[in-house]
Amino acid sequence: MIADRDILRVSGLTMRFGGILAVNDLSFTARRGKITALIGPNGAGKTTVFNCITGFYRPSAGEISLTHDGGETHRLDKLNDFRITKIAKVARTFQNIRLFPGMTALENLMVAQHNALMRASGLTFLGLFGAPSWRAAEKQAIERATFWLDRIGLRGRADDAAGNLPYGDQRRLEIARAMCTEPVLLCLDEPAAGLNARESAELSELLRNIRAGGTSILLIEHDMSVVMEISDHVVVLDHGVKISDGTPREIRDDPRVIAAYLGVEDEEVEKVEQELGL
Ligand SMILES: Nc1ncnc2c1ncn2[C@@H]1O[C@H](COP(=O)(O)OP(=O)(O)OP(=O)(O)O)[C@@H](O)[C@H]1O
Fold first, then answer.
1. Residues in domain ABC transporter (predicted)?
2. Structurally, what CATH architecture does the domain formed by 98-182 represent?
3. Ligand 1: which residues within 6 Å by Cβ?
């Protein structure tokens, strides 16, 4: 069977908080094996969309479906966050770092594989007695953690407390931790926030590697150099509504996007366009 080109389809997504319409009838798709960026000015609704996709919020209306390579489709708007991670295989990171700072880098990656280890122990205390199934699963978990420590260049710091690592390393460790759950879709909320130029370049390299490995990525990002450099497809939100959708180049040249970022009203778009010579 040929896999569906789109891994994620969001259709008519609406999210209300009392009188606030944070996301209004939003539709877009994310392609399989590609990097899709969700951008927009502050308060545009990006994190709310992420929270709906990853089950932190139940949408007020709309459908979110994720299709695995084999054709199996999951309605994310109907699943809770636990099942979205475990069954639909969607992983996420947050705007603020949420590592366990007192645990080592390796331990942080092992904790992410807790579900697999528990399954191998038959959900009992067999692990404590070193049952063969548990030992095999533990070996595999260590191998996977080591693989990701290598990928992010932190093998040599495996035993250091995560909280003592430089900020950029912590950001990459968080992404590695999400990858240890073997997601089909990785959702990253502002991964480049607070990074210096060298750390941003390392992040871009890591995300390209993850894409090359076949994992699809959905990314919220304010750092336009990262967005333009690595995204295959960009969706632009403003006031909860999609205002543009296309390649990074198409987005960059879209007067509606420029106007939204400059904070001007619709009727001024033409003026901005003229001023920029578009
Ligand atoms: N839990 C909530 N309760 C009430 N209003 C909310 C809630 N979450 C978000 N909002 C509102 O929804 C709108 C969209 O917010 P959201 O955080 O999704 O935007 P954003 O594009 O991610 O912004 P930023 O780039 O600043 O992170 C804002 O007006 C915000 O105040």
1. 8-264
2. 3-Layer(aba) Sandwich (3.40)
3. 17, 20, 22, 40, 42-48
